[in-house]
Specification:
Length: 283
């Protein structure tokens, strides 16, 4: 018996709607829980003071600053390398055994647990390169963890540009690099930015990599150089929830709320940049 196409369409839309609810409802519930429990401790002092009394009092300012340092350095390290690697693999690399091995390696690296990246950063950056437990070691570890996602999403974005754009540019006398720089990259930039921000947002909330490479249990003062340790919101939240007894109710939720807000601001900024470049597209 063949179903009416309209009934089939309604069933399909119902499944799509339910799938959307499965994703949206937990996000809404988590947000409500954070706001309900975290707003009670939210104040200017909580955001601008250093922790006191073994982190049972005071604020989370050093953790906020440390997280910002890590995010900024991760962007500086990972974004140029990831985009350049994607350009090479998409525009220059030939389809042979080496490129296939690189593709498989990138896909596999995207699925490696974050704790493994932390151990890698500990062995390479902290011990072998002698950076010590520092901001630069943590940022480099987070950068390596972000690279597979940045490279993959950037390649996908570059691959969406019609081949006719490249052929027309080359036919007009432009070199391959001029074509990539002036035609391909500007049109692929919204997709590149989207993938990069997704990767960096994940890195901003990771605990395991910074646990081995940069995070300090209790550090009330701010770091002076990138070779110093720092506090970071993900690790600070873990410490408050598991290792500091008699913490004021709501402090853990307030810390989580600040971390989520920082990631949201990062995504909103990326969305604004993406919209700006999309408006410039002519196709």
């Amino acid at each position: 018996m063949r179903l009416n196409p309209k009934i089939t369409e309604k069933i399909a839309f119902a499944f799509l709607f339910l799938s959307t609810l499965v994703i949206v409802v937990p996000v809404i519930l988590i947000t409500i829980e954070l706001l309900k429990n975290g707003m009670s401790v939210m104040s200017w002092k909580f955001l601008t003071e250093s922790p006191r009394m073994g982190m049972r009092a005071g604020g989370i300012f050093p953790a906020i600053v440390g997280t910002v340092y890590l995010i900024v350095l991760t962007i500086l390290f990972a974004l140029p390398v990831g985009i350049l690697a994607a350009i090479y693999l998409s525009e220059y690399a030939r389809d042979h055994w080496l490129s296939k091995i690189i593709d498989v390696a990138i896909v596999n690296l995207a699925g490696v647990p974050s704790v493994v990246y932390g151990l890698f950063g500990l062995g390479i950056f902290v011990t072998f390169l002698n950076f010590g437990t520092s901001i630069v070691a943590g940022a480099l570890t987070l950068s390596i963890m972000s690279l597979p996602v940045i490279i993959t999403s950037s390649r996908e974005a570059l691959g969406t540009i019609p081949e006719s754009f490249r052929e027309s540019s080359l036919a007009l006398g432009a070199t391959r690099w001029q074509t990539i720089r002036r035609i391909v990259i500007p049109n692929a930039l919204p997709g590149i930015i989207t993938g990069a921000i997704l990767a960096l947002s994940r890195a901003a909330g990771e605990t395991a990599p910074i646990l081995f490479t940069v995070a300090a249990f209790y550090l009330p003062h701010l770091p002076k150089t990138i070779f110093d340790q720092c506090m970071a919101l993900p690790y600070h939240l873990y410490v408050l929830a598991t290792q500091v007894p008699n913490v004021k109710a709501g402090v853990e939720y307030g810390t989580a709320l600040v971390l989520v807000a920082m990631i949201l601001i990062l995504n909103l900024m990326a969305g604004a940049i993406r919209s700006h470049f999309r408006k410039k597209k002519q196709w």
